[in-house]
Each structure stands twice: as C-alpha cells, then as structure tokens.
Amino acid sequence: MQSQDVAPPPAPASREPFVDVEQAEAALVEHYPRLVRLAYLVLPPSLGRNRRVLTAHALTQRALPRGRASTPVIPAQSTGRDGDPGYALVRLQVLRTALEAGLPLARKAWPKRSQLPPLLPQVWGLRLFPRSGGADELALDQKLSALSGPARAAYVLRGLERLPDGDVRRVLTAAGVAEPDEALEEADTVPAQYPLLDSAEFDPCSLQARPTDLMRRRQHMKAALAAAVAVTVCGALLGLPGDGWGPDGAAAPSYAQNPAAQAALDPGRVTRVPATAWQAASRNDFSVWPARGDLTDDTALLRRALAVWARPGETVRVSATPGTPSGGPSGPAQLLYAGNVDNARVVILYDGLRIARYAEPKDGTQGAALDFARVDGATSAEASAVVLGRADGNVRYLMAPWVTKAAERDLLKPSAGTMALTVTDGVTSPLAGPAQQTGGCTSWNVLQLTDRSGTRLMSDLGELVPARLTTGRPGALHEASGAEALRTWAPYACSLSAMRSAGVRTVNAWPYAEQRLPEASGAANWMCTRAETWRGGGTRVLAQFRTPGGAYGAVAAKAENVPACGPRDPHVLAGVLWKSEAGNWYLLAAGSKDTASVGATGAVSGSARGNLLTVKTKEGAQAGLKGTLEDGRSINGLR
What contacts 571, CB < 8 A, 6 or more positions away? Predict the structure, then answer.
C-alpha cells in the first residue's frame, strides 16, 4: 500500500548528514536499477556492451561504505529520492568508480580496482547486453561515446537525475573531476535528448543473452591439449565450403549445413501469400498477410535477412520479447514485408510462432538489428499491426489487409477526437509514439484501427506487436474504443509505461469499486489493470486509486504472476493510506463487488461488511488486508 500524502518533504537536518551502512544499503537496493543504468551510461563504450553491463553491476554492488560516512546533500530531483543522503552517497560512489574505470592505465602506478575486469558478477559462456532501442538511441549512444568521461557524467546527471547545473558541478567535484565547468560545456555539444536515457537501450538490468563464439571456445580447448591439433582444426574450419561473408552480410560464419537448414535460408523458398487469401480464410491472423513493400523481389536482401536470423554475428543487435526463442527458422518462413523504411531496409518474416524483423542501414554501414516477438495464437484483433520502424519518437506500422482505417488518438484526452493516418500499401504515416518522459506524463498516443468487426485501440509498448487495450470485468471484456471506455482509460493511460518490454498481448482496465471518502471528501475510484502476455506467464496487475478530481490514478498495489483481475480469478482487494484535507490519516480498502467482508490486520485493526473498508489510522501504518467472498472463499490484499 502507498500513501497519498500531499505534505512537503522535511528539510535535511544538516548539510552533511552521516549515513549508516544500513541506510546506504536500503537506498542501493531500492534504486539499484537506476544506479546501474547511471554507471552503464558513464562507463566508456570502448569496453564493449558485455563488459559495460558486468562492470556497471560490479561498481554498483561495491558502492556501499564500510562504516558511517558523511555526504553533502545533493537532492536527486525525482520522486522517492529527494534529499535522501543514502542515495546521494551511493550515487556519488558509483559515479566516482565509473569515471575511474575510464581512465587510461598508468605505467608507474598500480591500476585501480575499477579499471580491471570485474571478478564478479561473471556469466561463463554468455554475452549479456541490453535490449536494442531505435535509431535515436543508437545515434545518442554514438554521440555520448565521443565525449570524455566527465562530460558523459555531466550529461547523464542532467538527463537521468535531472540535476541543475549547480548540483552537477558539486557532484562532479565530489567525484574527483578537476574541471567540472569544462565537462558541462562539452556535454552541451550533444543535443538534450534526455528521455532516451530511460529507454531499454541503456537498461543493464533488462538483458539479452547470446553465446560467446562457440567455435573459438572449442578451438581453444583443443589448443590447450595439443597445439598441432588446434591448428589443424582451425585450418579445416577456415576451409569449409560456403559463400563466405560477403553475400551473408552481418551473419556469422556458417557452421551447420543440412537440407532443412539450407531450405530455411533459401530466399527462393520464402512463402508468399496471395493478396486476397485472408478473405476466404477461416481465421484471420499473420498467416494470411500478403507480402508487401518495394523490395519483396530483392533476393540479396532476403538472403541477408535469413542468414542473419539463423546466425547473427557479433555486430548484430538482437532483442526478443520475454519467452520468445531467438534461434533460426525451422523451415521456409513467410514474408510479410520487405522495403525501405526511413533510413533502413526492413524485412519482416513470420514462422508460425514468431515475428522476426531484420533492419540494416541504407548506407551500408554496420549496425544490423534483429528483433523477435512471439505471436502464436493471435486473433484477428491482435494480428492487426506490426511495428515497421521507430525514428525521432515516431512509429510506422504495417497494417493487416483487413484494416480499413487507421488513426492516432491521445488516450489522455478522450474527447479530443482522432487524427487520421495515411496508409500506403499497408504502411501508415508516422505516428507519435507514447512519450517516455522524465517529467510528468502529458500524453499517451495510441493506434486506433477499424475493420469489418469494429474499432479497437492498440498501444506501442516498445515491442514489435502493439498491445490491444480492453475494458470490462474479467470474462466480459470489450474493446476500449467507445466513449465510456475512453473515459475509463484516460486517468490510467500513463500506467501503461509499467507494462513496457514484457511481451504484453492485451491490457484490460476494470473499474471494480467506488468508495465514499471520509470527512465528506467525495468519492474515489478503484481500478485494476491487468496485462496478459503472449507466453501466458509474466502477467502484471496494478490496483490504482484515484481521488475526486484527480487527473491520474495512483498505484496502490501491484503484483506479477497472480490470477487476480483475470478470467481465472475475477476478484481483487487492495488498500491505500489516504490523508484528508484536515490532516487525518485513513486506511481505505476496496474489493470487487462480490466481496462480503473486508478486514485489516497488523498495525491497523478494523473490519466491515461489504466490499469497502475505512479505518482511521496514523501516518506510515503497516497493515495487511483479508477479505471474504460471498461464496465463503478468502482472498488477500494485492501487494
């Protein structure tokens, strides 16, 4: 349960508070993902993505002080960290060691621990790297790599931590930077694309895993036994028959040549569905999409796409939604699209289980990308669109052949209407994607599609296939496109950011209770949003609470892999601490309509018949919730 306290935070007790190890550890654990992201961004890109990830985790885990330590109060300008000296201390230590890791090794001095490869964590046989972002994130990473370490740190403190320049100078000085003003001036040479720093491209806690060079490892093992045998094996491998590197583009050397594998890599055997097949099909899904795009006859492009799918080389950026295998196709795949999209050549393929998107730069430079999304069992509604590309915060979609109209809508403004999108050969004009803002959430653009079965909303959650939005009680869902459904979704649209990069298939919003507030403060609404995934597991549930007149809902409880709010268990119980205008604190709890009674345990004691509970309490009280359904079954409060 979370408090809805409107009181301002207390001022720091002193300018240089002492921080205990326990306080620093609590701050590190609570903000670990952000601290690791900060270290990853400051570390020099020349280390390589795998070593940057491992070093960022190692530096963050070593940031705890050995005893009590003092630190200047440099606020972290973000909810949950303001004025926390524990966070300021561990952030400073992470920044200091990340800057040290980028220093060149001195001949006459022992290297610092941060300059050496981390002993822990280590993952043998795997390369770990963050999920791939778009062209904007790649361009920003290249620009940051050209900066010095202090300038990169200044840019990250401005953008990720949202510190003003005065506080940035203080942090850099405390971290040992001799010329903080020069670092700030150098950071000004990179455009302020701060929202991109929160993208999956720079998240070392959400990782992709690929094997290291398996053939090289095998060769090294043989070399350790007998050098002569290793030389022979290497010579044999180099002499294997094949077409070499050129025709396969960024693919790794071929090491498997059997009839099934060769058939899957043959561009001449790619499946192409007739344009009208969907009209006579018993089920409309990706299997009846025709091949579209201006490069469908480019055999060389299709060969490169298939070869990279089967054997992605070290320069290929690979990402996959959770639960999606990233191995090569088992047989000839179906071609959905091959064409020019913005500054890239894009190929989209389907193998009955997955959508695979291959993209390569038009200018021929390295930097090919390969993305996977699981789509098995898709309905016609869920197979309505695929992301072709993202650039400058915009998204282009490839539409299903049965879609007759596409439009853009701001989910936060239900009465604002839509803006029509131009569709050419199934490809939409650019749509402004949901903003990943470091400040407040001011808009959430979604895709509105119309076909012969009706109108629906789809939201981009950073993956290849947008998520379908619905409303209603579990078991009786309907599309979120009507006027009432739009008003239902509007205050909770920004909570969709919690569903990013999770392989989400659908998200349902269910207004399950309305509760009169104490002291004649009006009525509050309770909402349960549940994200279902393509793989079945990994569901995410949020119970949200909105006070009268509130623009947004506040997350009161959240959980993963629970049946609450779903078709298997269409029930929910959640609570929140709420402060009245008179300064009184209350525990408010609400269950779904068929809840017969609700009780509070722990520091708060109270119970009530029905699905609503109001108990006066104190600030910070810790309480548990238990409910009884009308059929006698017990349920616990969502946490």
Answer: 564, 565, 591, 592, 594, 595, 629, 635
d(CA 467, CA 63): 39
d(CA 289, CA 293): 12
Tell me the pLDDT tens digit for each residue of 131-166: 766 777 888 888 998 899 999 999 999 999 999 999
Give the Cα-Cα-Cα angle 131, 134, 136 (nearest 5 degrees): 125
Which residues make Cβ contacts (< 8 Å) with residue 166, sequence separation at least 6?
A: none
Q: What is the 3-state secondary structure (H, E, C) of 94-125?
A: HHHHHHHHCCCCCCCCCCCHHHCCCCCCCCCC
pLDDT less than 70: residues of the chain: 1-18, 67-83, 105-115, 117, 119-125, 127, 129, 132-133, 209-248, 251-258, 260, 365, 435-440
How far apart (Å, rounded) are the C-alpha atoms in residues 582 and 519?
A: 9
Full-model pTM: 0.64
Residues 588, 515 contacting (CB under 8 angstroms) = yes
- Strands laid side by side in the 369-374 sheet: 317-320, 369-374, 354-361, 344-350, 334-341
Before 130, cis peptide (omega within 30)? no
| Residue 222: strand pairing partners | none
Please give the Cα distance from 293 to 31 (Å, whole number): 45
Strands 423-424 and 467-471: unpaired
CA–CA distance, 448 with 445 (Å, rounded to integer): 10
Phi/psi for 406 (5° steps) reads -130, 140
Tally the C-alpha atoms within 13 A of residue 143's C-alpha that lie toward its C-beta.
19
Residues 572 and 565: beta-carbon distance below 8 Å: yes
The token duo for 56 is 């960022």
* C-alpha dihedral (31, 36, 38, 43), degrees to nearest 10: 160
- Residues near 176 by beta carbon (within 8 Å), at least 6 away in sequence: 96, 99, 100
